[in-house]
Design a protein that fits this description.
With 345 residues, the protein is of the alpha/beta class. 40% of the residues lie in helices and 18% in strands. The radius of gyration is 25 Å and the shape is elongated. The protein binds S-adenosylmethionine.
Length: 345
């Protein structure tokens, strides 16, 4: 069946009898359905069985010869030709198969991916699905990614799995060493290059480092800063979680952008993952202030994604208390954070 598929499709395009064509495709559908495998291999490329079934059903449901041939040609194209854009490896001729790539602006992610060395142990890390989604949308294999707030290295783990090279910057030496150790336990199937820098992202001379490493620029940058002082990551004064005021936090974050954005290629993307905070009876829209820092530097806002926010263990234990406080105080309990997507002009 595998090798026959392309032949059946091209033969059907020569036929002029609709019933005959439909009979061919009915037989094909029967065979594909019977196969126990999830994917069908055609010319060494695996095609999702569900996708093929959907396309063949559409062909079978059509009533005119002209329309039927239109769908057959479309199927042929998706099986034999590729269509790419400049920012990722997705084959747009087979876009229907990427049903796990989110394109809506509301992300409800319930279960954390805990495969391989991923773990929820680092307080304040993000779930692996965030960098996974973003790297597949905004990078190609072999490109360079920057994460100036590395933490437990979720981005670098995903980059390694997806065949993207990456640099992570982390202020805490202890955290950095632990992250390096953890990642070294994962397989590196694409021989990806990962670099770990123990530096202050608001002071780093990235140019010097890039020159030394013969890296020209980045094709994607992902920022996951502390949400100001919500979680204190260290006692280091340069740690953004120790910023003395909102202004101080934004100034320091702005310096990180000034150090990193010049080395992002034009037309390429950057993302920031950030939540708001509540302080002295006032909702501080930290996310929107941080978004503005990118816009102030000429970046184009492409999307605002709202992602559900899992309760932290501490909050979970105090759920009732927070509900009471919310009812009494006229506010809402945090359940979301933001992912802002930007493009460089
Ligand atoms: C929200 S966490 C990032 C978590 C990461 N995305 C993960 O999945 O593990 C922020 C990290 O930024 C680091 N950090 C804070 N200030 C920094 C600075 N000035 N330069 C570099 N890293 C900094 C903290 O130590 C912390 O590990």
């Amino acid at each position: 069946m595998k090798n026959n598929l392309i032949n059946i499709i091209s033969d059907s395009l020569k036929k002029t009898e609709l019933t005959e064509i439909k009979n061919d495709f009915s037989d094909l559908l029967f065979e594909i359905r019977r196969s126990k495998k999830k994917d069908v291999l055609i010319n060494d490329i695996s095609i999702k069985k569900d996708f093929l079934i959907g396309e063949i059903n559409q062909i079978l449901e059509t009533h005119t010869l002209e329309r039927t041939k239109y769908y057959i040609k479309r199927l042929m194209k998706s099986l034999t030709e590729t269509k790419h854009n400049k920012i990722n490896d997705l084959n747009l001729n087979r876009w229907k198969e990427y049903d796990d790539i989110i394109t809506d602006s509301l992300w409800i992610l319930s279960k954390r991916d805990s495969s391989g060395v991923h773990h929820a142990g680092y307080w304040g890390n993000f779930i692996p699905q965030i960098p996974n989604q973003l790297l597949r949308r905004y990078t190609k294999k072999g490109e360079w990614v920057l994460d100036p707030f590395l933490g437990s290295g979720t981005t670098l783990i995903e980059a390694q799995r997806l065949g993207r090279n990456a640099i992570g910057i982390e202020l805490s030496k202890k955290v950095l060493n632990q992250t390096k150790k953890t990642i070294s336990k994962e397989k590196n199937p694409y021989s990806v290059k990962l670099k770990f820098l123990n530096e202050d992202s608001s002071e780093i001379n990235l140019k010097r480092f890039l020159d030394e490493s013969a890296i020209k620029s980045f094709q994607f940058q992902i920022y996951h800063p502390p949400y100001w002082d919500i979680i204190k990551f260290s006692n280091n004064k340069s740690d953004l979680s120790n910023a003395k005021s909102l202004n101080d936090f934004l100034t320091k974050f702005g310096k990180v952008l000034d150090n990193c954005l010049p080395y992002l290629d034009k037309k390429r993307f950057a993302a920031v993952v950030i939540g708001d905070k509540y302080s002295d009876g006032e909702w501080i829209p930290l996310g929107f202030y941080v978004m503005q820092e990118f816009i102030n530097r000429g970046m184009i806002l492409k999307s605002t994604i709202v992602k559900n926010f899992d309760e932290t263990t501490a909050k979970r234990n105090q759920k009732e208390l927070w509900r009471y406080r919310a009812l009494a105080g006229g506010f809402y309990v945090f359940k979301h954070e933001y992912i802002f997507i930007f493009q460089k002009k």
